[in-house]
Design a protein that fits this description.
Layout (H helix, E strand, L loop, with lengths): L3 H17 L7 E3 L8 E3 L13 H11 L10 E3 L3 E4 L3 H12 L16 E4 L14 H18 L5 E4 L7 H13 L15 H14 L1 H15 L5 H23 L18 H10 L3 E4 L2 E4 L14 E4 L7 H14 L5 E7 L3 H13 L8 E7 L2 E2 L16 H19 L5 H22 L6 E2 L2 H4 L7 H17 L19 H10 L2 H11 L3 H20 L9 H22 L9
Parallel strand pairs: 5-6, 5-10, 10-11, 12-13
Antiparallel strand pairs: 1-2, 2-4, 3-4, 7-8, 8-9
Helix pairs in contact: 3-16, 4-17, 5-6, 5-7, 5-8, 6-7, 9-10, 10-11, 12-13, 15-19, 16-18, 16-19, 17-18, 18-19
The chain binds arginine.
Arginine binds next to helix 10 and strand 10.
Length: 586
């Protein structure tokens, strides 16, 4: 089903285009106040000048030519030239029936023509355990991948890439430290075991920070790695496996859609870096500056008006983060055949990606049809507005954070539902704790810094995961109470009656699910979905307070049960796309 809003926009735009004689787009928005109808078109006004008429006059001419009679009542012109549109009752009931008859997609069309898309997310720097700084990319990227996958209906066209930092000095440091402290591993570098990578990393880092000679060795080991020298390379691989194993535990606990098959770290591009530099040279884009190889692009000037170069090779021959990203763009376009590449990182990397994208385009590596998109997000702060850290000042490990979330949810469950069997309590605690962490992150506008607050994210009231999960469970309990098995396949528009404004508002909101999912897929702003779900559940509450369900007479009872069913399905599908579990009981 094409979203109602899209149909309205398309039809009004085509009338406008005809009248004006050049392409013109109308903007249609859902209204907040029923006295303006359900939708309002307001792109018409700006176009009036072109016809040397006033906006109201133009709106009148548009409405004369417009045929929306299959969807809307007669359009009304309001104020200076808004067009107010009210969807016909028959259209609402027919569309709701179609939604209920389409339980897998709930009215969201598939877009098999959508581009092959790479989503680069999570991508932690390895060797250390994942900490709170990695959480947003992991959660947001996962949701973007899920939604795009759902929209295309072709999972194989969404390619997840975990661009882990597995090739930096931190690994040279670990290898050097291992060689120093456990020289015996040189005899069997594949089989050594590290009891606690975190502790080992800390000790190595201490040596690195305080011991000049050791630091030199660490750099030397990094060079050895990049030259693929054994046994350094074998030791590196063992560290890498151990470190990825830790990440995978976090991914599994979080329930994000990342597995080993999605990892393609920086090291994978090692062989391609020299070519990146020489191809930039061939394109005439390379300049030496203080011994380093740089690309100067006019767009990037500092405050003094000097161009800030993108450095692709240091004077000692080492390649940089940007060089790897350039190689990765080429790989993704040439080998993976991607025509949309999405990067999910924090906002501190805005400039990095802007430079890398510009450079790759200038070098001619990015066909015009390929879109490169950076999705930046703000940092995680504590309730005091400072960077979110443990009391010791260290960054908080993700594993510990997730365990705490589940423990806190567990105590809420114990409070509310002490008599549930233990395994059910544990299952609820997991879904609620992890769901709360994800939902809180996703529901904040991406560009803002995000304030981490246990109390807020676990609240049963407000725009939170527990509230949404509870809304779902409550609807399920209506069906349990009424002992009702509803059969979708038998529903027809005649089964739906609209007798109260609250029913109408609820249906109208349910029918926006496809619009919201398409918008999120396009704009990559997951909070639009959380805002929508919250709105939906509030509209459901209004309906449920105004309209008795189980106690009403037939045929109203069946109609209202169908509204309950549709609401539960949309909440479940929405939460599912956010990677959040629903519960039958809570
Ligand atoms: N490893 C990087 C970091 O932790 C993020 C990588 C993002 N992806 C990319 N292709 N650069 O900051």
């Amino acid at each position: 089903m094409k979203p109602i809003i899209t149909q309205l926009e398309e039809r009004i735009s085509s009338v406008l285009t005809e009248l004006i004689g050049e392409p013109a787009a109308a903007v249609v928005k859902p209204t907040q106040d029923p006295k303006f109808g359900d939708y309002q078109a307001n792109g018409v006004m700006g176009q009036a000048k072109k016809l040397k008429t006033n906006p109201r006059e133009l709106a009148t001419r548009v409405v004369e030519k417009l045929d929306l009679s299959d969807i809307c009542e007669t359009p009304e012109i309001a104020g200076p030239g808004f067009i107010n549109l009210r969807v016909k009752t028959e259209y609402l009931t027919a569309s709701l029936t179609a939604l209920l008859n389409d339980p897998d997609r709930l009215g969201v069309d598939t877009h098999p023509e959508a581009p092959v898309t790479v989503v680069d997310f999570s991508s932690p720097n390895l060797a250390k355990e994942m900490h709170v700084g990695h959480i947003r990319s992991t959660i947001i990227g996962d949701v973007i991948a899920r939604i795009l996958e759902f929209l295309t209906g072709k999972p194989e066209s969404i390619i997840r890439q975990n661009h882990v930092g597995d090739w930096g000095t931190q690994f040279g440091m670990l290898v050097a430290y291992l060689k120093q402290t456990h020289p015996e591993v040189l005899d069997q570098p594949e089989s050594f075991e590290i009891a606690d990578l975190g502790v080992f990393y800390q000790q190595a880092k201490l040596a690195f920070d305080n011991d000049e000679a050791f630091r030199k060795q660490a750099y030397q080991e990094t060079v050895n790695l990049h030259r693929h020298h054994d046994p350094s390379l074998k030791i590196w691989r063992a560290f890498l496996n151990e470190s990825m194993h830790h990440c995978q535990q976090v991914y599994d606990k979080l329930g994000v859609t990342l597995g080993p098959e999605h990892t393609r770290g920086e090291s994978a591009y090692g062989e391609l870096l020299a070519n990146v530099v020489s191809d930039l040279d061939k394109a005439g884009m390379l300049k030496e500056s203080n011994g380093a190889q740089c690309v100067f692009m006019d767009k990037f000037k500092n405050r003094d008006g000097e161009i800030q170069p993108l450095i692709v090779q240091k004077s000692d021959g080492a390649f940089l983060y940007a060089t790897t990203d350039l190689a990765a763009i080429r790989y993704r376009i040439d080998q993976l055949k991607a025509t949309r590449i999405i990067y999910v990182t924090d906002a501190r990397q805005i400039q990095h990606f802007d430079m890398v994208f510009t450079c790759a385009r200038q070098a001619g590596w990015v066909p015009p049809a390929v879109s490169l998109e950076h999705v930046p997000f703000g940092s995680v702060q504590g309730e005091d507005g400072k960077p979110f850290k443990a009391r010791s000042g260290e960054s908080i490990k993700l594993k510990a954070l997730l365990n705490e979330a589940v423990e806190r949810a567990q105590s809420i469950v114990e409070d509310k539902n002490p008599d549930l069997p233990e395994n059910e309590k544990a299952q609820i605690a997991h879904a609620v704790g992890i769901g709360a962490v994800k939902y809180a992150d996703l529901s904040s506008n991406l560009v803002n810094d995000y304030i981490f607050s246990w109390d807020r994210m676990l609240a049963m009231e407000g725009n939170t995961a527990p509230y949404m999960q509870y809304s779902y469970a409550r609807i399920q309990s209506i069906f349990r109470k009424g002992d009702i098995e509803q059969d979708h396949s038998s529903i027809t528009p005649d089964n739906i009656s609209i007798t109260d404004p609250a029913e109408r508002t609820l249906i109208r909101t349910l029918l926006r699910f496809n619009e919201i999912i398409e918008t999120v897929g396009h704009d990559l702003r997951p909070h639009l979905l959380t805002t929508y779900l919250f709105d939906l559940s509030q509209n459901f509450n209004t309906f449920y307070n105004a309209c008795p369900v189980l106690k009403s007479e037939e045929p109203l009872r069946t109609s209202r049960l169908f509204l309950c069913r549709a609401t539960a399905s949309v909440i479940q599908a929405g939460l599912n796309l956010l990677g959040i579990e629903t519960l039958e009981k809570m």
